[in-house]
Amino acid sequence: MPGGNRKQAASPLMKSILITGSSSFLGWNLCNYAKSDYEVFGTALTNRSGIAEVKESKIDLTSFDDCRKFIEEIKPDGIIHNAAYSKPDLCEKDPDYSKKLNVDTSSNLAKIASENSIAFAFISTDLVYNGSSKMSDESTPVDPLSVYGKHKVEAEDLVLQHNSSFTVFRCPLMYGHSTTANKGYFKGFYDKMKNGEALKLFIDEYRSQAIASDVAKGIVDLFNDGVSGIFNMGGPQRVSRFEFGMLMKSVLHLDKAQIIPASQKDVPSVAPRAADTSMDITKARSYGYDPSAPIKGLIQLAEEIKEYLQIE
């Protein structure tokens, strides 16, 4: 397993970053954090991030030639490859497209970056772990259950084969804010809870949920510091979906919420679900990553985005 060493060539002088998938939930948060200190380029096929400071282009990332031409034109100091076919059920239904976007495109971009001496970070997932043990660290053998997870592992390997100084960030289930069309699961859950709609949440699925803004800050900062290898970028606590829902109800004063405890077997899914993909983040923390615990994160989130959540 690749380690987490710093590159010999210092990268705090990084001035420009290309973020693929800039209109996605995490992409928006990456752009929103990076915009203050970097010249930010983004790629988005359909939607836009809506962030004025981001120079976005419509690029077909599955075209090697188009990507190479674009990257050689803008000459970024670093690339954070965040774009993905990221819904596990859809990947299960269309594994060929999943491989094309999640594996082949990732490998192509890493190849272009390596050939042009551009720093490169690949956004991976906690779903590379099979869920048989809790708080997996970077040395835990990967054994994904789903097509999506398998393709992310394949892409991780190819990226680091192109250049061992490149970086892989394994991200958790994230909650938080964005102004793009892709707002993640959190806003939908919040609206259902606020309206008193029944919401089934798993008591037997554990994740290391984190605020997307914390994850984005950690990724950009560690990337700029020149780290290499694989890093878990989860939150600091292991919580079930049900436990997190109950925290939302309490912290955000969602008195009408009807949260029903459920088991994974109660909710049909095309893609196999891992029982526990919680992550040990000791290594990332040693480099300065400092994500908020769920209660603190929800309090901070509610205060920062009252208008977004329509909190009175």
Your description of this structure?
This protein has eleven helices and 13 strands. The strands form four sheets. The chain has a seven-stranded parallel sheet with strand order 3-2-1-4-5-6-11, sandwiched between helices. Strands 7-10 form a two-stranded parallel ribbon. The chain has a two-stranded parallel ribbon with strand order 8-13. The protein is of the alpha/beta class and 312 residues long. It is globular, with a radius of gyration of 19 Å. The chain folds into two domains: 16-175 and 211-232, 3-Layer(aba) Sandwich (Rossmann fold); 184-207 and 238-278 and 292-305, UDP-galactose 4-epimerase, domain 1. Helix content is 38%, strand content 16%. Helix 5 links the parallel strand 5 and strand 6. The model is unreliable at 1-12 (pLDDT under 50). It has helices at 25-34, 64-74, 88-93, 95-115, 147-162, 184-194, 212-225, 241-251, 282-286, 294-304, 306-309; strands at 16-20, 39-43, 55-57, 78-81, 119-125, 167-171, 174-175, 198-202, 206-207, 210-211, 229-232, 239-240, 258-262. The N and C termini lie far apart (49 Å). Helix 1 packs across helix 7 (212-225), helix 4 (95-115) packs parallel to helix 5 (147-162) and helix 8 (241-251) crosses helix 10 (294-304).
